[in-house]
Amino acid sequence: MATWIEKWxxxxxxxxxxxxSRIAWRxxxxxTITLILSFATWFMxxxxxxxxxxxxFTFTTDQLFWLAAMPGLAGGxxxxxHSFLIPLYGTRHTITISTLIKLIPVIGIGxxxxxxxxxxxxxxxxxxxxxxxxxxxxxxxxxxxxxFPKRLxxxxxxxxxxxxxxxxxxxxxxxxxxxxxxxxxxPRLFEKFDATTNEVxxxxxxxxxxxxFWYVPFIIIMTFLCWRYLKSVPVKASIREQFDIFKDKxxxxxxxxxxxxxxxFSGLAATFPMMIKALYGGFHGFPDPLTFxxxxxLIGSASRxxxxxxxxxxxxxxxxxxxxxxxxxxxxxxxxxxxxxxxxLDQLPGSSGSCAPCSSSPVSATxxxxxxSRSSSNIPSDRRQG
Amino acid sequence: xxxxxxxxxxxxxFIFSVIIGAVITTTTNxxxxxxxxxxxxVIATWVNWHFYNKKGCERPS
Lengths: 386, 61
Description:
Chain A is built from 16 helices and two strands. Chain A is mainly α. Chain A folds into two domains: 7-237, Up-down Bundle (Growth Hormone, Chain: A); 247-386, MFS general substrate transporter like domains (Growth Hormone, Chain: A, Up-down Bundle).
């Protein structure tokens, strides 16, 4: 089966109608599903770390924050690498292999959490590999844009980025849901002690490994579908052209505004479970942060899809301004109400009441493709950000 | 350019986790980080408004 498509001219109406459209939408469907897996595995560590102390791991709070941080370090770095892959290796090979290698973190972390003697450095390495999915965005987007004619590029990229982002929420939502489900291996006793009385308040058997192993069949199926159905569109690589962007000051301004949107979204989404646990975990009757942490990224992803459509009409800049103001108000509120320096658990509803809105309103405000539409109209290349 | 900006923004989880973790373990609360974030957001919002949003800006979009 040929990897490279010989003739690809999506702007020709006849070609698009007879061949192009079908292949392009099929490619978009497959790559969007794999991008959900990318985002989910990228953020799985943020949900899993908060359960580790309860099943016998003796890592410090600081160490747990570093574990949640590692996939971000890998993700950012891999995005730079991924932005060169499509011209070199094509859609089929890049996306099939990117999907396949996610077996490393999901199998590795699954086994690691089953054994409380697993050393910290092994977790650090596995957390880095969990960042594989973080890089994918920067090759999937240019890949998708190759397949579609100009008039549909925005729509296609919006669908892919928006739906792909639900993976963040999926990882945090599915983790608590799967703790009671036996997929492989023995359960471990999860114990929680009350911080003041030192009594055992929760004692139950959980399968933390299930939160990692459940991705395995999906990754295998999607790897197969990618190899079977994806083709590559030849494109001229111009690596030098890619470096020209650094001569343009707007590259730097857009980096700032993009960090404000996606950086704040991804940063808060990854940190939220651990932060709530660290701030409120010491109080009597502290609930599982994962029961509400996923709302932030969920609202954020939804607003991203929605704002994508809005921005086609209003332009991206105004939405980015609204996003920024929304973030400022929410964070000012969090600070002024003292919710980040809590003195009792009573503040948690206030916190999740104004922190979940806050954390989702940064997030929801944060996620819009607004930055994108704007940046992409500045940009000679036809890629969009996410 | 999108490859670059998206890559830098993807360091968000790393930067936020490391700093928030350090701030909480040294000061027992997260205020320090969020004051810093607030300052950054004010600057970033201004950059966006000034270059891309206000009337007669350099690159309206």
